[in-house]
Amino acid sequence: MKTLFIIAIALALLTTSCMENKSENKETKLQAIFPKGNLGPAENFTGKAWATGLVANDSMYNTLVGNVFFEPGARSNWHTHPAGQILIITDGVGYHQIKGQPRQTIKKGDVVKCPPNVLHWHGASPDTGMYQMYILPKTEKGIVTWLQKVTDEEYNSDK
Amino acid sequence: MKTLFIIAIALALLTTSCMENKSENKETKLQAIFPKGNLGPAENFTGKAWATGLVANDSMYNTLVGNVFFEPGARSNWHTHPAGQILIITDGVGYHQIKGQPRQTIKKGDVVKCPPNVLHWHGASPDTGMYQMYILPKTEKGIVTWLQKVTDEEYNSDK
Question: By CA distance, what is B62's nearest residue in A?
Answer without folding.
Answer: A137
